[in-house]
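Customer ticket, subject: "Can you confirm the structure for Multidrug resistance protein A?"

Message body: Hello, I'm evaluating your service for our small team and ran a test protein. I'd like someone to confirm that this is what the system normally returns, since I don't have a reference to compare against.
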Amino acid sequence: MRNAWLALQRTQIVSPISGYVSRRSVQPGAQIGTTTPLMAVVPATNLWIDANFKETQLAHMRIGQPATVISDIYGDDVKYTGKVVGLDMGTGSAFSLLPAQNATGNWIKVVQRLPVRIELDEKQLAEHPLRIGLSTLVEVNTTDRDGEMLASQVRSSPVYESNAREIALDPVNKLIDEIIQANAG
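Agent reply: Thanks for trying us out. I re-ran your input and got the following:
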């Protein structure tokens, strides 16, 4: 009975985070497999911008420096405030599936871009929500150069965590006990 009850509970799919549904590829009543992507859930909080700065712009950039972000969706009317929370450890081309290779004798230097993560103010995001993939203009104030270029602290807890897959067995255990008691005497 416990296995049947557990199987019934697992027919309900619960999102591990709160957010907005995007790219839904399933309809109610559809049969799905265990590896079938159903939809993307985009969180409305803890958003950040990965700004791709040229390597020549990074000499004075440090973690903790203030940033100003303007999104094309709102234009100059809305200026977000944020701060640098990290500089990536590699350029986009270094991690691409097929990295660009310079042929022998090709001495053309290509300036690379490095992702810099900018954390945004939650209150401003609540007033003027952003969407994933929008174009932005990011300016970082690099006058204060006391911060670090690399994060020295490891995050102690994940940004997102969920107990959506945990199912309490108390209700079924109580039901089993009631059935046993009713049939015991």
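A couple of notes from the result: The longest helix spans residues 170-184. The mean pLDDT is 85. Feel free to reply with more questions.
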